[in-house]
Amino acid sequence: MKFFKNKLAVTVIVLSVTFLVIIGYTSKKQGKDKVSSAVGVTLNPVQKVFYSINDNVKGFLNFIFNFSDVKSENTELKKKNSELSSKSIEYDSLKNENQRLREMLDFKSQRDEYNYIGANIINKAGGSILESFTIDKGLKHGVKVGMVAIDPKGLVGQVTDVTNSWSTIQPITSENVAVGALVESTRDTTGVVKGYRDNNKAVARLEYIDANSEIKEGDVILTSASGDSYPKEIKIGVVLSIKEDKAKMGKTAIIEPYVDFNKLEELYLVVPTSNENNNIKY
């Protein structure tokens, strides 16, 4: 098979050269004698065919000779595209981090009645439903059990365990955390928010609501500061649904937290100050 391919290639080249010679010769003689003219007319269609074949052969050979350069250029373009994609991802990450830090600084300036310890989340436990997470601050940074964790969007949870260099926090969606609540629209200070799982979704439930409360879907729930641990009027979440609790002669409400725990990366721990309006004691 290889022999026939080589033989065909040689034949095409020989015919191409032969007809090019004839074409050149007939071109010089054209107009001088009728025989040459007749030959030229006869060969004209053939000339076109072989001109076309010759151009195609040239194009194919150029492609073969330049293929290595094209392949190298394509590899280089892919490399540059990959680098640009990486830089774009890095830029978006830095942009998002900068936005989060700005929000945290704004919150800190607006709620300056407290001091704060900034912390990064270094581990999360619980799979799809967060049960607890670990931060990179501990006893040597001033962290104590019971400290409240917040971020600019709202209440995060409470410190439940502390070592010298790191601490564990349970979120407000945990059943081990209870928070006194305030309904923003009515200013009712009744009810306690506890962690709750609704169809395998981590939310919170507001319990012990007075039967005559005018609480409704869409209401914003805040911390009431009725105890000694939580700063007042920190956003907890929004009411998704309300149900009559006949057994307890009151109502319960399902609350969706403002904080997206899956995206949470940084937070603040609230530190008591000597401010007379400060109600927190650890």
From TrEMBL:
Keywords: Cell shape, Coiled coil
Rod shape-determining protein MreC beta-barrel core domain span: 121-270
Keyword Coiled coil among record annotations: yes
Signal peptide: none
Coiled-coil residue spans: 77-111
GO CC terms in record: plasma membrane
Highest taxon of source: Bacteria
BP GO terms, sorted: regulation of cell shape
Function: Involved in formation and maintenance of cell shape.
Family, similarity comment: Belongs to the MreC family.
NCBIfam families attached to this UniProt entry: mreC
Protein name (database record): Cell shape-determining protein MreC
Organism lineage: Bacteria, Bacillati, Bacillota, Clostridia, Eubacteriales
Gene transcribed to yield this protein: mreC
